[in-house]
């Protein structure tokens, strides 16, 4: 019995990983089908050039009657249905709900990488003027598409075969490394101790000689990338799922204290970190989104 209990304990991390992968497949199934349908279409659309809009004067993000669905029957297949809300500078918004319900899709719409089926997301400056919007017609008549300056930490991350410095600064690939921001990013993400313990510090290549980073270290590396970019909008998609509760809380506290981040939208299943957010968007099964002031 003892041997069985020990073996079960050893298998638990693998089972958790299998469940996480299954959840990822389920949540992205409609997206993959959409890509396959697009690729098989006879009329291929020309990929649009993405242009980052200056978002330094961003003060308000407004959602106006947002709807989104993957199917043709708008009334029955809405993932998001008639969502309206207005968030002002300093807002920290958690996004919660069951797996595969559309939380990551909402992040895509905020980043303007995905257009809503109807409605609009408006980005307003200090004069309350819209300088960028995302609706079902955005960029329809041109080969360019404007997106806000934002940093994104996805569910699944990667390590490049290069130094830790370049692994972090890759979020700004065409610019010279800013070592002040590099240090800040490593400290906020709690990656600094790991870096300091390496013989070459930031010059250390984490992929050489069979070395591999743990899931938690890779997740902190991804958070460091996002912080290094110094964007006013931070999008987090289960960004602390591989971290223990103490580490997750410390990182969320660090992120919340950064003045350059004007808005945080974070998908999470962890109730323990919800106290770091000013608002909670809760997804319901019928496509309705409920806003709770925290």
Describe this structure in words.
- This protein has seven helices and twelve strands.
- It has helices spanning 2-40, 103-110, 164-169, 179-188, 192-196, 215-228, 245-256; strands at residues 49-53, 60-69, 78-88, 92-96, 118-124, 130-135, 144-148, 150-153, 233-237, 263-267, 279-283, 289-293.
- A hairpin with a 5-residue loop joins β5 (118-124) and β6.
- The longest helix has 39 residues, at 2-40.
- The protein is globular, with a radius of gyration of 20 Å.
- 30% of the residues are buried.
- The model has no long low-confidence stretch (mean pLDDT 85).
H-E order: HEEEEHEEEEHHHHEHEEE
Number of helices: 7
Rg computed from alpha carbons, rounded to a whole number of angstroms? 20 Å
Largest sheet: 6 strands, mixed
Model regions low in confidence, pLDDT < 50 over at least 5 residues: none
Distance between the termini: 46 Å
The fraction of residues in strands falls at 15-25%
User: What's the helical proportion of residues?
Assistant: 25-40%
Number of strands: 12
Estimate the mean pLDDT confidence.
85
Using the alpha-carbon principal axes, give the shape. Answer: globular
Strand order of the largest sheet: 8-9-10-4-11-12
Structural class, from helix and strand content? alpha/beta
């Amino acid at each position: 019995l003892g041997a069985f209990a020990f073996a079960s304990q050893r298998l638990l991390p693998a089972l958790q990983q299998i469940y996480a992968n299954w959840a990822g497949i389920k949540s992205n199934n409609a997206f993959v089908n959409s890509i396959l349908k697009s690729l098989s279409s006879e009329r291929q659309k020309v990929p649009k050039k993405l242009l980052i809009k200056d978002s330094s004067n961003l003060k308000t993000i407004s959602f106006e009657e947002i709807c989104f669905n993957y199917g043709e029957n708008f009334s029955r297949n809405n993932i998001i249905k008639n969502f309206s809300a207005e968030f002002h500078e300093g807002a920290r918004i958690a996004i919660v709900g069951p797996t595969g319900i559309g939380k990551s899709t909402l992040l895509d719409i905020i980043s303007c990488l995905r257009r809503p089926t109807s409605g609009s997301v408006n980005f307003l400056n200090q004069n309350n003027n819209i300088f960028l919007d995302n609706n079902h017609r955005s960029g329809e008549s041109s080969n360019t598409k404007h997106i806000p300056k934002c940093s994104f930490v996805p569910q699944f991350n990667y390590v490049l075969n290069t130094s830790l410095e370049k692994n972090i600064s890759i979020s700004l690939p065409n610019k010279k490394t800013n070592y002040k921001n590099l240090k800040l990013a490593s400290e906020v993400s709690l990656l600094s101790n790991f870096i300091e313990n390496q013989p070459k510090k930031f010059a250390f290549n984490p992929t050489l000689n069979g070395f591999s980073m743990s899931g938690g270290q890779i997740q902190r590396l991804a958070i460091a990338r996002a912080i290094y970019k110094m964007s006013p909008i931070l999008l987090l998609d289960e960004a602390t799922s591989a971290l223990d509760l103490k580490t997750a809380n410390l990182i969320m506290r660090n992120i919340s204290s950064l003045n350059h981040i004007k808005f945080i939208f974070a998908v999470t299943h962890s109730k323990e970190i919800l106290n770091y957010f000013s608002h909670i968007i809760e997804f319901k099964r019928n496509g309705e989104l409920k806003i709770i002031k925290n």
